[in-house]
């Protein structure tokens, strides 16, 4: 599998190895906080309208990124808040868990943020998030009909994503 660069999608996507892999929902945000994609698979309760939900999720991500950068005991340089970091650069978070869900997160160098909300017993989802990013590159970014910054409406991406998420449920 290629993460940043390359154009090949792995024929056998990574599958998380933990029990209880129920994916509830997924978000894709651009670097400006615009929700480009939102999908629910298993969300039993809706408490907010979609716009409020997206704003709260992006605000949560921004706050967690700021918190982890400011609390980093190994770095004097706290960096500019909101600026994407390269993988392995600086202090960042990958997930957090509550008693009812787990939020897993990845951010690409271009500022694309992908969030999966799953069952709390779900294992490490960094490889599946990388695979989802590769689907995004193949079916959205390389699509000549897609205008960057607009909501994602690509049937091939939706179908491939749904198949992959069903495989990790």
UniProtKB/TrEMBL annotation:
Keyword Amino-acid biosynthesis: no
Domain of life: Eukaryota
Pfam families hit by this protein: Sybindin
SUPFAM superfamilies: SNARE-like (SSF64356)
GO cellular component, one term: endoplasmic reticulum
Cellular localization per UniProt: Endoplasmic reticulum; Golgi apparatus, cis-Golgi network
GO-annotated biological processes: endoplasmic reticulum to Golgi vesicle-mediated transport; meristem structural organization; pollen development
Main localization, broad class: endoplasmic reticulum
Keyword set, alphabetical order: Endoplasmic reticulum, ER-Golgi transport, Golgi apparatus, Transport
Record's subunit section: Part of the multisubunit transport protein particle (TRAPP) complex.
Family: Belongs to the TRAPP small subunits family. BET5 subfamily.
The protein's name in its UniProt record: Trafficking protein particle complex subunit
Organism: Cucumis melo
Name of the coding gene: LOC103482924
